[in-house]
Amino acid sequence: MSSTQLPVWLKQDDSSTAVYHLALYCQPGAKKTEVQGEHDGRLKIRLAAPPVEGKANDALIAWLAKQLKTNRSHIELVAGDLSRLKRVTITGMTQEDILQALLPRSSC
Asked: Which of 24, 19, 13 is nearest to 102 (CA)?
């Protein structure tokens, strides 16, 4: 399989093939949690959680773990605690698994 060009919001860690960094734009207070596309080079995620006392951050990690079918311990919020612009590290997954879980499927 040929190497795939990663989207701008997904970066592979230079030191490990099983560590990826996601650049996210999170919009709390939505009706439901879902991927909304891209926003300024980041994956936009609408969160059905209020932006108070870390509830949106907890909801984000829980939702990512469910979508990626992995443990919460494999997902870490490394930047953007109090911001809509967040950076998350994911360990123990392949880029194909991440892309398949987060990108909307196009059907004909």
From this structure: 24
Q: Quick check: is 81 in a domain? A: yes
Q: Is residue 14 situated within a structural domain?
A: no
Does a structural domain hold residue 47? yes
One-character DSSP codes across 13-56 = -TT-TTEEEEEEEEEES-SS-EEEEEETTEEEEEESS-SSTTHH
Q: Are 105 and 37 in contact (CB under 8 A)?
A: no
Per-residue pLDDT of the chain (108 residues; tens, 9 = 90+): 334 577 888 888 777 667 888 999 998 888 998 898 888 889 999 998 888 888 889 889 999 999 999 998 899 999 988 888 999 999 988 888 888 888 865 433
How many H-runs (helices) and E-runs (strands) does the chain carry?
2, 6
Q: Is residue 51 situated within a structural domain?
A: yes
Instruction: Write out the residue range of the structural domain in which residue 32 sits.
Output: 23-99
